[in-house]
Amino acid sequence: MINHLHLETHSFFGLKPGPKVIVLGRVHGNECCGTLAIKNVVNLFNTQVLTLDSGKVTFLPIANPLAALRGTRNGDRNLNRAFYPKTSDKNNFEDKLNNILCPILEEYDVLLDLHSFLNGDKPFALIGNTSAGKKDFVIGQKHVCTSEHQLVSALNVDTVITNWSDTYTRGVQKRRKRDGKHSPPFTLNYDEKYGDGTTEYARSKGAIAITLECGQHEEFLASSVGKNAILNLLNRLQMTRTETCVNTDNHNVTYIKLFDVIDKLSYGDKFVKNWKTFMKVEKNEIVGIFESGKEIRAPKDCFIIFPNQNAEPGQEWFYLGEKPNT
């Protein structure tokens, strides 16, 4: 039997100084678009249709080989949670991966992590907080400062979500208070760092880190969204020169800042409608009803983000977001 449980990377080096970029695919095993996008770009380099002028770019087409082999979102657990080196006994496959992938990510200035989603209408991206994600590069002979906000504008998406990590942490704090968990040791469900994934870890090491949700899992064009994003990112960083990039200079981006997360409390909790990410909800509008009969109403005019009717009790049910003040 062929052993598929290894990690495969492809690296290309320019002949001039420049940023170090890493692109991940298939952190979740059933999200194939990132793998396909990466393979298409690697082929462009291998056939010399595309040349790397400066810096270094590494592609990791399958970040979770166990989940990919099974064709499922997770292997033993969600790789994009609790993503940090493990010093205690490593009881699952993803913990072992953490100790391989974390040192790899620490080598890079920029991370682009390609994903897809189950429900939704259009691609979107996630970045850190407004004040995070700035980086100085030497590109050629010039010092250039850029940020996650500047780079995400090159990915040709209409909507960008911010403030995931802080909102997740507040949700865990509310969960602890609700369930009476006030002191360690915590299970993962009460671990503030459980919300940290690849981008949060890379960002904690000083990198610019962007998650791109390329489209629905089975959507044919999702891999093309990922491919174009890679090409646009490398071009924006002046690492390549290609005419295949989508022009994003006049592209308007809407930012949505997460501000709250609501847990599902029991299996009987129900939404009042089939919510999808980015659907608007008005102040005092009913979003859902707990099994107890208590209504969940929107505290202000805002957006529903990541609604999950199939969430397990005690897990995130939906997030709320708003346009940040400018």
What does this entry look like structurally?
With 326 residues, this protein is α/β, with parallel strands linked by helices. It has 2 domains: 10-252, Zn peptidases (Aminopeptidase); 258-322, Beta Barrel (OB fold (Dihydrolipoamide Acetyltransferase, E2P)). The protein contains 7 helices and 16 strands. It has helices spanning 33-46, 65-70, 93-105, 148-152, 164-179, 198-204, 222-236, and strands at residues 10-13, 16-24, 54-60, 110-117, 124-126, 134-139, 142-147, 159-162, 208-216, 254-263, 270-271, 279-281, 286-289, 295-297, 302-305, 316-322. An 11-stranded mixed sheet has the order 1-3-2-4-9-5-8-10-16-15-12, sandwiched between helices. A hairpin with a 5-residue loop joins strand 13 (286-289) and strand 14 (295-297). Helix 1 crosses helix 7 (222-236). The longest helix is centred in the middle third of the chain and has 16 residues, at 164-179. It is globular. The termini are far apart.
Low-pLDDT segments: none
What's the oligomerization state?
A: single chain
CATH architecture of the largest domain: 3-Layer(aba) Sandwich
What is the overall silhouette?
globular
| Beta fraction | 25-35%
> Into which percent range does the helicity of residues fall?
10-25%
Largest sheet: 11 strands, mixed
In total, how many beta strands?
Answer: 16
Question: What is the topology?
Answer:
Blueprint: E1 10-13, E2 16-24, H1 33-46, E3 54-60, H2 65-70, H3 93-105, E4 110-117, E5 124-126, E6 134-139, E7 142-147, H4 148-152, E8 159-162, H5 164-179, H6 198-204, E9 208-216, H7 222-236, E10 254-263, E11 270-271, E12 279-281, E13 286-289, E14 295-297, E15 302-305, E16 316-322
Parallel strand pairs: 2-3, 2-4, 4-9, 5-8, 8-10
Antiparallel strand pairs: 1-3, 5-9, 6-7, 10-16, 11-13, 12-15, 13-14, 15-16
